[in-house]
Amino acid sequence: MGLDLKYDNARQYYINIAAADIESLPDVFINLYRKKNYVECQTLDLVKLNQKITDAHSDVINMSDRTIQELIQSVCSEISGLFRVSEAIAMLDMLAAFAQVATCQDYIRPELTDVLAIKAGRHPIREKIHSNKFIPNDAYATQQSRFQIITGCNMSGKSTYIRSLALMTVMAQIGSFVPAEYASFPIVHQLFARVSTADDLEANVSTFAAEMREMAFILRSIEPRSMVIVDELGRGTSTTDGLAIAIAIAEALVESHALVWFVTHFHDLAVIMAERSGVVNLHLAADISADASSKMTMLYKVAEGPVANRFYGLALAKLVDLPLNILDVAQGISGKLNQIAHRRHSKTKALIIARKRNLILSLREQLLQARDGSMSGAALTKWLKKLQGDFALRMANLDEDLTVFAWRDEDEDAQGEVESETAGDISDDLGQEKQPESEVGSQLSSCVEEQSAVRTSDASSWADDSGAE
């Protein structure tokens, strides 16, 4: 007779016997379970052994628990020292990681100043996960350029640019080197980000509602030492309402004196806010080929000014083979709307004066930074000469625009004087030829009498002709 010893959680150890090997079982076997091809059973001694195993297991658990409690009590008296050791190990691990990334990667040590200045800054994560070489970008922000509006087509790198600035700011303030050729950062007390919101179905909140909730929190908490990145605010509602809300929030962020990078597809926002003190327009352009293929190449490079080409959407539509008649209609409508917007935002005298004021404020800020900076000697002289040349050129262009407006005003005044003199001469001539009221009245009376006599004679002749008939 073959006996197999087996185990399960319910019965623990038991004996398994093939049904073909037995005809009847002795009385020593208990707890019988007959199945199709075998019989499961136990003996009294086996049951006792199972109980001993259970008791031993419980004793081990109790002894382990007592040992752990004693260990905890002994450790509690030394917990402060253990915390210090843990903090030291964590600090050592962090410093080792910083040293490893600073030596193995092309990172530099940043400076802490009052100006955010980055030369050839890179995104620390994107440059590692992309197969193509990451294109670096510069950044510069002071109080006179604290609010930077960034425009450009989709997939041009706007979101990556502002996120890289935020990441490098955090890395600099925790003591890490940063991915750039040169970098200086101000101390930032708060970092706010309003980026990439999706509908929250569980909370019954739409994209636009989530945007407004986050912006309300930012506006309540922001301070001059804050840093804010905003990505495409107002896209979840109508164009008019979205633009109006974006302008209102932009005005509030400018007044907060915080450093703000504001990514938007509202080109009118860049035009309207362009002359506000502290506002700078930037864009990430794309190169559209002039041939029939309309190939679009992303440059991923930040440039000054708002985006010049407003027809990126039409270029993308050509790439997906929309019908030509639809593209022609869209091209015509877009051109007309662009002309209307250009006329609405044409240069005015007040606009040029505002630009001159911003230019002077920017010059003052750069001179103060040069005074407090580390530049000296020939490098400082070269920089000051370049600054002087740029300032003189830009101021001359603005003065030329003001001269054009002055000539236009003089022409309008001269034309007004000629019209006034002409009107005076006509009035004098009329005064000389003016007759007394009595003569005028008598002439009017004689005219009325003559007209009445004519009408009476005409009526009489008409009556005579009728009677003759």
List keywords for this structure.
single chain; 469 residues; alpha/beta; Rossmann fold; six-stranded mixed sheet; four-stranded antiparallel sheet; 12 helices; 14 strands; 18% strand; disordered C terminus
What would you note in describing this structure?
By secondary structure, this protein is an alpha/beta fold. The protein has helices spanning 44-76, 79-104, 126-129, 158-173, 207-221, 239-255, 267-272, 312-319, 324-344, 349-372, 377-432, 437-468, and strands at residues 3-8, 12-18, 29-34, 38-43, 111-112, 116-121, 137-141, 147-152, 182-185, 190-194, 226-231, 259-263, 279-288, 296-304. Among the domains are: 3-76, no CATH class; 115-309, Rossmann fold, CATH 3.40.50. The strands form 3 sheets. It has a 6-stranded mixed β-sheet with strand order 10-11-12-8-13-14, sandwiched between helices. A 4-stranded antiparallel β-sheet has the order 1-2-4-3. Strands 5-9-6-7 form a 4-stranded mixed β-sheet, covered by helices on one side. It is elongated, with a radius of gyration of 44 Å. 17% of the residues are buried. Mean pLDDT is 80; it is low at 429-445 and 447-469.
Q: How does the SSE layout of this entry go?
A:
Layout: E1 3-8, E2 12-18, E3 29-34, E4 38-43, H1 44-76, H2 79-104, E5 111-112, E6 116-121, H3 126-129, E7 137-141, E8 147-152, H4 158-173, E9 182-185, E10 190-194, H5 207-221, E11 226-231, H6 239-255, E12 259-263, H7 267-272, E13 279-288, E14 296-304, H8 312-319, H9 324-344, H10 349-372, H11 377-432, H12 437-468
Parallel strand pairs: 5-9, 8-12, 8-13, 10-11, 11-12
Antiparallel strand pairs: 1-2, 2-4, 3-4, 6-7, 6-9, 13-14
